[in-house]
Amino acid sequence: MTLTRTFAAGTLMLAACGGEASLGDNAGETWGGPPEDEASTEAVTTLYSGKRKVHTFTVDDGTLYALVGTRTGFELTTELVACAVDDCTNERRTLWRETAPSPSFQSLVVSSSELFWVDTAELGVRVVACSIDGCPRGPRTVGWLDTTSLITADADFVYWLDGAQRLVRCSHAGCPTAEPPHPNEMELPSPTGGGDQLVAFGEWIYAHGGRRIVRWGKDGREQEVLYDSPFPLSLFDVDAEGIHFATAILTGEVKRCPLSGACGSGEVRAVAQRWPTVVKAAPEGVAWVNSVPEASMFMRLHDDDEPSELAPQTGTLGSVVVSDGYLYWSEQLFPSDIDQINRVAL
């Protein structure tokens, strides 16, 4: 059965629908099956639940890609899994599997029929790639990082920040050393909310660090500071409507800036939010997390309506993704140490 959690009146109830699979090597692990027609659009559906650690995941064109790992002694067996989001029980493939001592993975992105992510292991920190059809011989090395960093990608390049906080890029084919597209430095303070953030949108690469949002033109245009805040900023998102972010304070505001350039104080979309962070934008609306201890909640905003509660956020938050009208997130639940990947309609 699909594990579906229905959110109502502040409680989280387990409901059942669809089909379920339990893997022999991972007892008790479940992957979500086809939803029933009568399933509520307000329900939170659990696509994965198990003891394997969800390092990172993404969703593209109806397919979930996830890097999950099982620790045995001093080694970690990592599996890159792909499945149709509407039926991970029956339509699931292993693209790559490897056992190695203490690897770490983050920042999984899809571009031009390839998956790219950051692999931190004994060899060093590198960007690797695997075809969406699989890489049974292992992912290929695209480039090396001099520090752990998140990445983004477009149709031609993979981008990240070097140790001097410069934007660098590397072609999909790979490069021995990635070079800056131009020499500008970010000169940003240490970021909040889980590390540097890069977003590729249109002809720009956007970055977050501490209290600033900046961007570089892919054609070599100078760095622009789009928003400079007296308060820490949430992780942000970019779409055709603008740049969406929040002030990550107890009485935070969710804001929007136009894509045309610096926006001053920004357009306020929602007020009196509680430690808002991880803002995500989609045509259906904007979502974020009010990260109140013991009562974290995903919120959403449709057009100019008042913000409403979308779903509880009950564990240690991992990756958050929006795709095709849904919000997806991973979290680790305590004290059970169960990792989950969930989704809810925006």
Helix-and-strand structural type: mainly beta
The average pLDDT score comes to: 84
Helix fraction by DSSP (H/I, runs of at least 4): under 10%
The dominant shape is: globular
User: Cα-atom Rg, whole angstroms?
Assistant: 20 Å
Main sheet characteristics: 8 strands, antiparallel
**What gap, in angstroms, lies between the N and C termini?**
23 Å
Number of helices: 0
Low-confidence stretches: 1-24, 182-195
Percent strand = over 45%
* Structure summary, number of beta strands: 31
Ordered list of secondary-structure elements with their pairings:
Blueprint: E1 2-8, E2 11-17, E3 20-23, E4 26-32, E5 43-50, E6 53-60, E7 63-72, E8 75-84, E9 92-101, E10 104-111, E11 114-121, E12 124-131, E13 140-145, E14 152-153, E15 157-161, E16 167-171, E17 197-201, E18 204-209, E19 212-217, E20 224-228, E21 237-239, E22 242-246, E23 252-257, E24 267-273, E25 276-282, E26 285-290, E27 297-301, E28 308-312, E29 316-323, E30 326-333, E31 338-345
Antiparallel strand pairs: 1-2, 1-5, 3-4, 4-5, 5-31, 6-7, 7-8, 8-9, 10-11, 11-12, 12-13, 14-15, 15-16, 17-18, 18-19, 19-20, 21-22, 22-23, 23-24, 25-26, 26-27, 27-28, 29-30, 30-31
